[in-house]
Design a protein that fits this description.
It is a single chain. The protein is mainly α. It folds into three domains: 154 residues; 100 residues, no CATH class; 107 residues, Orthogonal Bundle (Cytochrome Bc1 Complex, Chain D, domain 2). The chain has 21 helices and eight strands. Strands 1-2 form a two-stranded antiparallel ribbon. A two-stranded antiparallel sheet has the order 3-4. The chain has a two-stranded antiparallel ribbon with strand order 5-6. Helix 5 packs across helix 7 and helix 20 packs across helix 21. The chain is globular, with a radius of gyration of 24 Å. 37% of the residues are buried.
Length: 417
């Protein structure tokens, strides 16, 4: 009897949590079907073109393309601490894609994380960020997606262990992880709408709690992405690393700035999204992130070697041996070949994981905007010992990042697995 009571109480609590998730989720105006009917009745090339641009700003292709590159056909795996989640097929195929969705179904999936059958979407889909997307913008994206080729491709099932494979449990997750809300009129908050909603930048650059929810009180303070880290984008952090407004806009538009090039998780952002954004939207995004506190530009000159830069050390020896040929004797870099390291963000971060990852694994050739190409960098996983890599990392961090030279060979060994 006691077990039945405990079981009943437990089930009651679960049911209560599920029921409670709806009123606790922020309430908006209901979907305006009349406005949607008028919008789609007057559907024209302008609506579809607007939807195409919004899909670019929202970077839909980065997660929803297929492994072989088919647009929006799904199947790319996203590794999370809880298992692997596969991007869905969002082509207009009626069986494998969203061909049976209404515009209202699409809007609720995009902004509320709820499928037409009522099941919760996993927050790998950034509905936490998309929550304040306007219905007009959602409808435009839906109109654009419905002009794409329908692809009959079923994506692999998610590989999530129990209890993470129980979608109903997301009811509790939603109780304690509310969506990002814009503070004010979205039409007057262009930069915030681009960064926090469409661009969903906080999904990578804001720390997460133990449940994988965004810690919104620490917005843009940087976050671990597993083997690498997304750096802080606060105005102070950007200023401390020497970024200017001009640098940030160049980085987003061209994938290149004096502080480095777009690599790792940011490279798909350039490929599918930021290089195609209008200059005015890039500028609005930059002003929102920096709060207008950075200088417009910097009168930089080529780095002059000083006594520290020519001090002999084990790390310096490794750098001269395997890095200087491309990155320059004193880390000044070579245009069109390799970025400068003496002002590179990866050497300045307190977390060394990005620098270690690139040295260990290398970087594939990068095709940037405007036809610019940065050559491939080999990884040194086997060419250098873990101690040599540690010495190299310590040298670069100390000389060019003002960071402590405290990386050990054991940390390098862990990063290699």
């Amino acid at each position: 009897m006691r077990r039945r009571v405990v079981w009943g109480l437990g089930m009651g609590l679960v049911c209560g949590l599920i029921a409670a998730s709806v009123p606790f989720w922020p309430v908006r105006q209901p979907y305006d079907h009349k406005a949607a009917e008028q919008r789609f009745a007057n559907q024209n090339s302008k609506l579809v073109e607007r939807g195409k641009y919004l899909a670019v700003m929202a970077d839909c292709a980065a997660c929803h393309q297929s492994p072989d590159g088919a647009p929006y056909a799904g199947g790319l795996g996203l590794e999370t601490p809880f298992g692997t989640i596969y991007g869905s097929n969002i082509t207009p195929d009626k069986q494998a894609g969203i061909g049976k969705y209404s515009s209202s179904d699409f809007y609720h999936a995009l902004t509320d994380g709820i499928r037409p059958d009522g099941a919760f979407l996993y927050p790998a889909m950034p509905f936490i960020s998309y929550h304040d997307m306007s219905q007009a913008d959602s409808d435009a994206i839906f109109a654009y997606l419905n002009t794409q080729q329908a692809v009959v491709r079923k994506v692999p099932p998610n590989t999530l262990p129990f209890p993470f494979n129980q979608r109903w449990a997301l009811a509790y997750w939603r109780l304690v992880n509310p969506p990002i809300r814009l503070k004010g009129d979205p039409t007057a908050l262009a930069g915030a709408y681009i960064a926090d909603v469409l661009g969903h930048c906080q999904e990578c650059h804001t720390p997460r709690n133990f449940m994988g929810g965004l810690v919104q009180s620490r917005a843009y303070q940087g976050a671990s992405l597993g083997r690498i880290t997304a750096p802080s984008l606060t105005p102070k952090a950007l200023a401390d690393r020497g970024w200017t407004s001009e640098d940030i806009q160049s980085f987003l538009k061209k994938g290149m700035a004096p502080q480095g090039t777009m690599t790792l998780e940011m490279y798909p952002v350039l490929m599918h999204s930021s290089q195609y954004m209008q200059d005015a939207d890039i500028a609005a995004l930059e002003v929102y992130l920096t709060k207008g506190r950075l200088p417009q530009s910097s009168a930089r000159t080529a780095a002059e070697p000083d006594q520290r830069a020519i001090t002999q050390s084990a790390g310096r020896d490794v750098y001269i041996s395997v890095c200087a040929g491309c990155h320059g004797l004193n880390g000044e870099g070579k245009p069109h070949i390799a970025p400068a390291m003496n002002i590179n963000t990866s050497a300045m971060l307190a977390d060394p994981s990005n620098l270690i990852h690139v040295i260990v694994n290398g970087v594939a050739e990068q095709k940037m905007a405007d036809g610019e190409v940065m050559q491939a960098m080999p990884g040194f996983r086997t060419a250098l010992s873990t101690q040599q890599i540690a010495d190299l990392v310590n040298y670069m961090r100390k000389e060019w990042g003002d960071q402590p030279a405290d990386i050990t060979s054991m940390e390098i060994e862990r990063a290699q697995h």
